[in-house]
Each structure stands twice: as C-alpha cells, then as structure tokens.
Q: What sequence folds into this?
C-alpha cells in the first residue's frame, strides 16, 4: 500500500512559539486519517505546511512518494483542500461557482460533469440557486465540491464541521464516508471533536502543543477490553473499600477526581452492575468511556488547568 503523506521530524517555529515540534506520521492510501487536537495544538500549522502555504523550520514532507519542496506543482495538482471557511462567490449560483473554479484550475468541464460534482455533495437540486441563500453546511459542501473539481487523490479538510448545526455535521460526515468508500479518495480531516473523528476515521493521530501523543488505527485505539467505567456513589470511600474486597479489586484504577475508575471489558459492565446492587452500594452514576476518550479528556482538562 502506497503512503500518500509521509511527514518526518516536522517542526515549525514562529518568533516566540514552536507550533509544531518534531512531528512524524504517515497517511496510507485509502485512509480517512483523523488529525485530532485542541484548538492551538498545531493542526492548522501542519496542514498549511502540507499545502506549502508556510515553510517548515525543519523536517521533511513527502506526498505521493515525492519531496514536497521539489515537486510542489506536480503534487498540489493531486490535492484538494478546504481550510477555514470556503471562499465562494455569494452572488453567483452553485454551478457558476464551480465553473469559475474549474476554469482557474485550467479545466473545461461539461455541464453534466459540474452537475455530477454537485450531486456528489448533495447540492444538485440547488445548482441554480445563489450561494447567499445557502446554509453554512451547504456552503461547506460547495467548498468541498470546489476542492474536488480537479479530481484529486488526496483531500485535506481542516475542521470541516466548525460552526455547523447537527444536520450539517451529519451531512459532512456522510460526504466524507462517500468520498472514501465509493470514490476511493484518501482523506486527512482535522477536528477538535473526538466523537466526530471516531465515527469516520480509519486511523487517527492526536497532537497536543505541536507534539504527537498517540497514533493508531481506530480499532486499536477503541479497544472494548480497555473500557473505563467512572463510578459515582453516595459515598465513594465506602464503595472503594467494598470493591477492594471483591473480585473487582484488580480492575480498580488510580483516582483522578473523586469518582472511582474501574477498567474492564465492555461486556463485564452488567456483571459489575449486578455486584454493586448485591453489595448495596448506592450508585449515582456509572459511565463507561473507552480509553481514548478518557485519554482525550485528561488532555483537555490538563490543558484547561494550565490556561485557567
């Protein structure tokens, strides 16, 4: 399988800030690669380096097996990107927008090809409507159609669901699935929302303050045998003693907050529930999280602790 993006030791320093530090990762052909981190973690800086909008301070980037700094034009012809809000002409219709952007790419698509592009992003029925009548989600989907006009192999989407309502978010999610499964595109999608990425990514990378924290396939990272249950009872200290004297003692994890943490396989939760009832532990809440979600929460709460 060909690697589409190969980033090695990538670093970007601005005057008094290192936004990306020694970052390395690989995106394989056919991946929906989730690029996850809080705002300010270095995601957008990395994406701008991949698109040659800013120069790295150190490190190397290869796309399609070619060094980016020597094969820029050749590479970017095969890349489509939407970063920030898509720039579309509000007073023109969807199809006119596509026609203009196609022309800028040196293409002369037929009316049918343009309609196919709009069909793909679910806007065929609004082809002749002016963009100013579109919702934010529709503008975002039109922006993606523009990025796909030259049929790129790699699509880069920076926070594509920012500012969208739940329906808009679901539409973008379905579009990404369609691009990946049916059109066999490789997609790099950044987000600060874990559950968003979890639903679409095949592999993901979490970065924090420019550093890589964890990378892997979603199957590895969302392993059901590594489920953490957060347990709140009327008296956690008393409940802890009872659990320590039960078969769950080896499952107890160090506490980070007042709640009790128990690590188990997701399938063991009903059994835990039954035992808590039998031990007459008054349960207030029992919340399962997979380890990555827990990891991400730790990361965000640790960050908030620094910033507040």
A:
């Amino acid at each position: 399988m060909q690697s589409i993006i190969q980033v090695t030791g990538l670093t970007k320093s601005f005057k008094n800030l290192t936004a990306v530090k020694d970052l390395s990762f690989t995106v394989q052909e056919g991946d929906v690669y989730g690029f996850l981190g809080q705002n300010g973690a270095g995601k957008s800086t990395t994406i701008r380096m991949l698109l040659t909008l800013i120069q790295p301070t150190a490190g190397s980037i290869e796309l399609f097996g070619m060094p980016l700094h020597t094969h820029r034009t050749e590479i970017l012809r095969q890349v489509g990107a939407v970063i920030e809000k898509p720039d579309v002409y509000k007073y023109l219709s969807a199809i006119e927008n596509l026609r203009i952007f196609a022309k800028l790419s040196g293409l002369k698509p037929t009316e049918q090809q343009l309609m196919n592009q709009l069909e793909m992003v679910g806007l065929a029925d609004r082809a002749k409507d002016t963009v100013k009548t579109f919702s934010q989600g529709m503008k975002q989907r039109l922006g993606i159609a523009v990025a796909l006009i030259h049929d790129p192999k790699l699509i880069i989407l920076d926070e594509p669901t920012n500012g969208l309502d739940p329906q808009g978010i679901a539409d973008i999610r379905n579009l990404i699935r369609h691009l990946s499964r049916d059109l066999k595109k490789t997609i790099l999608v950044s987000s600060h929302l874990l559950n968003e990425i979890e639903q679409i990514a095949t592999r993901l990378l979490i970065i924090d303050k420019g550093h890589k924290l964890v990378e892997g396939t979603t199957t590895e990272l969302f392993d059901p045998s590594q489920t953490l249950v957060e347990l709140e009872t009327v008296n956690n200290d008393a409940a802890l003693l009872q659990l320590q004297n039960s078969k769950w003692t080896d499952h107890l994890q160090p506490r980070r907050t007042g709640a009790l943490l128990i690590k188990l396989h997701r399938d063991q939760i009903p059994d835990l529930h039954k035992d808590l009832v039998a031990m007459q532990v008054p349960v207030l809440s029992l919340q399962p999280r997979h380890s990555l979600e827990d990891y991400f929460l730790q990361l965000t709460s640790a960050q908030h602790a620094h910033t507040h």
Notes: The first strand starts at residue 3 and ends at 14.
